[in-house]
Amino acid sequence: MDHSSHIRLTLAEQTEENLTGAPIYDQNDEKVGTISHLHDVGVAPKVVIDVGGFLGIGAKPVLINLDDLDLMRDTAGRVHGLTTWSKDQLRALPEHYD
User: Fold this and answer.
1) Domain-located, residue 43
2) Which positions fall inside the PRC-barrel domain (predicted)?
3) What percentage of residues in the chain have a pLDDT greater than 70?
């Protein structure tokens, strides 16, 4: 997927409403997870990503810094994110419990 024409989200757009359910892709444009929700919104916002599973079943929730994601909208307006983390690296993180 060519992200060069995608518009980066502003800080004001990085809300729970805009980000929940957004797919996250790795450097090879392979889907590595989906944003479940935001956490610690404010000074050091974080995001919970459901990694793996199928249709949310069997997914492992992990917590990463929001600034570890490059968040954008595609030409159709759909929000998604890019990360330098691989799916295996995300899976190796501790499971996040709310």
Assistant:
1) yes
2) 18-70
3) 97
